[in-house]
Model the fold of this input.
Amino acid sequence: MTIEKSTKTKDKSSKNSVPVNVLIVGVGGQGVLLASQILSDVALQSGFDVKKSEVHGMAQRGGVVSSHIRFGKKVYSPLIPNGKADVILAFERAEALRWVHELKPGGSMIVNDQKLIPPIAADKKYTYPDDALTTLKTRVKKMQILDAAKIAEGLGNTRLANTVLLGALSTTLDVDMSIWRDVITRRVPKGTSDANLKAFDKGRGA
Amino acid sequence: MAFEVGIGASIAGARTIVCMKHVGVNVAADPLMTFAYTGLKGGFVLVSADDPEMHSSQNEQDNRFFAKFAKIPMLEPSDSQECYDFVGIALDISEQFDTPVMLRMTTRISHSMAPVEIRPWQDKPVLGFTVDIAKYVMMPNFAKPRQQAVLRRLDDLGRYSETTPLNRIEWGSKKVGIVTSGISYQHAKEALPDASFFKLGFSYPMPLDKLADFAKKVERVIVVEELEPFIEDALKVAGIKCSGKQYFPIYGELNPTRAERGFADAGLLEVSPGGEMKPFAVLPRPPVLCPGCSHRSVFYALKKMGAHVFGDIGCYTLSALPPLEAVHACICMGASIGMANGVAQVQGSDRPVFAVIGDSTFLHSGMTGLLDAVYNKTNLNVIILDNRITAMTGGQMHAATGHTLSGEETRRVNFVELTKALGADTVQEFDPYDFEAAQKILKDVTKRKGVNVLITTRPCMLFPKKIKGEAYRIVPDECTGCGVCLKIGCPAIARSEQVTKKKLFIPIIDETLCTGCKLCADICPPKCIYLLSELPAGKEV
Ligand SMILES: Cc1ncc(C[n+]2csc(CCOP(=O)(O)OP(=O)(O)O)c2C)c(N)n1
Done:
């Protein structure tokens, strides 16, 4: 798969000789892949080398989905080394817990306060970790929990939830805001860009 | 089939690329092994994507051996840019050496995105087929001279491999020289950036002289490769001292951390900090059949019958997982009918036996199995799950959808006529959403002799477009908490916090996910699941 190199590349060679590692995780169907695509575009337009990797065969079937995005002056492997994610954005509580060990010491975590119980929990052998957020709080100092669906509902459209999350994610990364706005405008369905930019700002302020 | 179409296009003088996953090459191996003899006219590239780690495959196999087996050259790109560039180079090599070329990918190469510089591209005219019996008709008297040509070609390719810039050395510290290819190069480079690297882009036949020379200039040689010791063994046979699999696993995929650990084991570095947190044991979240999937009721019915089910590859294979657990064997595309046939022939089951196969898979490799069962007078029941799409792999069209892969309208195979023509004794369509009728049809068919085919008639919920019908709701005060609706593995149904008087959990339906297939309502013993528009008086929305 390829994405065309942006013509607007800026030279940021002095910055980021070690890549920035962002891990986005969630459940199939939640929009993890689109979010990671937007972040990759943002990084590319900011003049960085970017690699993104995900295995999405099972993504549409309610399975676990994770996407690695790495950007910097030069990126070799498309995979984040274990325990070295600078930022984790989790679309769901249990998935946040499943992946938190990939966060580097001192890294930031953004957790969407949503609970999706997998059908397998109908079997009494498996229980959903209701204490996920409490456990996470003991492990991660820099953590933001937000109910993106509720915030989006406040804006009149629950479909804006993922853009709210991107807004929150943007506060953890050193990237030009105008580039975020530009990419979001291009990537979202026609006619929804104003609403999406509003949702993005809400997420930044959340 | 795709490979054979590709051969035709190529010997008619068109540049051709044929793509498949690793197991696809198993199916295409027969034409591949002999196409390697004939050579071609328009450049021919076989793209083969291996799946180390079995992210979405039934096995793990190292297809680099196919290049060696067929004596054809192999290129291994290590990032998106090389994928793009290597296709053009492979086509040139193919035409220059009169050979098919394998472009070997892995999941991590195929499922990554990175910036790519687009280069100018020149269209080549289709030259047209010309008769050359000695080249294209492979029978012993013609194949023997072609075999000699293949051996000469392999020598020529070996010399090419020594000089091509696709095989490049990146000098660093001479303490260690890393020999690597494909994605492993990226992981190794990240973990040990200061080492000297021999990066193989043209990895069969290998540039053994250049490698021997490289080995002489460094203190020790370490081979970093995923899966089999393909490079390592070749170096050792050539008398080049090296190590590899001693430090890196022979299965699964590499990543920067595994590469780092391997180098640490080899005494080349100390493991960097990070990754100390132990993973939490979080309940698994396996992929599941979608809400409203037309496969679900079939497997629920088969489970209730206690049938032995020989399955195939597609979304429906997920029915092997709890709570359905109603697929009892799955090997490769098309194997279901053959397996069930074998079981029937040795009378190896005292239960009803079914072969269950998807529409796309039946057309790919199920038809011959059905014909064989007819021919050999087997008693066999086959269910074709016709959801009118290739769902598992992302919704591709096939010969029974009425559209080509590029979306144009085309003729549509009719499964009833097709299976009758193949000789099935009875053929019957049934609606999987009418559970009671479906159950009866499945039971009745087991009483019949001969080869009986049943075909489902509901489309996929996801492809080509999402289908959303009116949702159902559980009325809590009528629910007994029996939990039967939870046994069909529907992602729209979950346990709620509410309990019955007897303290049993009352399930709840997520109305945004429910598509209204009504399987849960059909099987609900107290009949407390209602269509939203048909809720009992006083409980309306
Ligand atoms: C030889 C081979 N080629 C390709 C694949 C990839 N593959 C997995 S499932 C599948 C087809 C599934 O379609 P279908 O049988 O219609 O079932 P559905 O997923 O629609 O239920 C394919 C092509 C494979 N497993 N083996």
About this structure: Chain B has four domains: 2-163, 168-265, 295-456, 472-534. The first helix of chain B runs from residue 2 to 11. The pocket of thiamine diphosphate is lined by residues B 21, 23-24, 27, 313-316, 333, 358-361, 385, 387, 389-393 (CB under 6 Å). The mean pLDDT of chain B is 97.
